[in-house]
């Protein structure tokens, strides 16, 4: 596994850490003068540029300058909250945290830093990110730890097989997939931000009809109930954090930007476990072209993937690709999202920049999970405590932001 591949695997870890915690030289641009102060602590243009580069390198869905600035403001608040109660970390503790974070991708902290430097990211970006996260973890535990009481009954319930996997969750969501062809990325992001800011289902639906290129646009982006495990793994946590009637921040896909609104959430059937998907992709030409429309019309009658080979005669071999038994987590997010809507033999067209990509689901299987030992009681207790503390942490951060003195220069 290359260093860059390992870097990308850290993305999910970075986004999932409950209390997760920036900088190559000035070639990345940006001034060293503060452009934002947070309770008297400065954030420089250079730091914002570096954090944005860090987020882009990890392929984070939210990696605009505004997102980078928000992340740094939150980090300043984490450190400020730590200072209030006297939490200070020595260099050894910070280095241990960097090694621990990088170790999740089988890298040392030094290897991770070297990989970042090759991509133009100053080591201080990673260091400061880690330090803020470690301080925040201690702040949250000190402030809310005594309020978390995990009982023996809680652990017993969590360790029951039917509870460990849960009854399953089903979600009712609306989607908007905004095409972002070359040269139009900025405009697409602006439209996506309007969708993210939509107040309620009706407003979102109106914007989805206007901006979305997904087949669901005629329904205002509304999708039917679906088990959460049909969604790409990259999107599940993002959707489950929403309150009904609220939308995600823009999520960058290949050649498009996506926004999702949660309409309702409920109990479903027990999840079947990890999935592998077999599917075909067919590059059918420029969006709005006669060729694309013709192929879509022909595919509408197809019910098996092998029928696409007949329809695709005359196309370059690279236009039609069979993907067999791909782990769901390895399917590109935009493709995985389309497949989540489909039964075997069904197809959907998704935008990829200025072109259309047709996706057909050939098979969906439950993947073997291998020999995995069950978690012991201490591990279950730790997981339950972490989940409870995360809820407290999110609320406390919202309070800190509301009370903070934030000045933009």
Q: Helix/strand-derived class?
A: alpha+beta
**Helix content estimate:** 40-55%
Rounded radius of gyration (Å): 23 Å
Strand content: 15-25%
What sort of overall outline do the alpha carbons produce when their principal axes are compared?
Answer: globular
Number of H/I helices: 15
Helix-strand topology string = HEEHHHHHHHEHHEHEEEHHEHEEHE
Quote the average pLDDT.
83
Distance between the termini: 43 Å
Largest sheet: 4 strands, antiparallel
Counting DSSP E segments of at least 2 residues, the number of strands comes to 11
GO molecular function, one term: isomerase activity
Organism: Thioclava electrotropha
InterPro entries: OMP_Chaperone_SurA (IPR050280), PPIase_dom_sf (IPR046357), PPIase_PpiC (IPR000297), Trigger_fact/SurA_dom_sf (IPR027304)
Keywords: Isomerase, Rotamase, Signal
Describe this structure in words.
A hairpin with a 2-residue loop joins β5 and β6. The longest helix has 27 residues, at 377-403. α4 (91-103) packs across α5 and α9 packs antiparallel against α10. A four-stranded antiparallel sheet has the order 4-3-6-5. It has a four-stranded antiparallel sheet with strand order 8-7-10-9. It is an alpha+beta fold and 409 residues long. It has helices spanning 3-16, 45-57, 65-84, 91-103, 109-118, 123-144, 152-159, 161-164, 185-196, 201-211, 233-240, 290-299, 307-311, 333-340, 377-403; strands at 34-38, 41-44, 169-179, 226-227, 251-253, 256-267, 275-286, 320-327, 347-352, 355-366, 406-408. This is Parvulin-like PPIase.
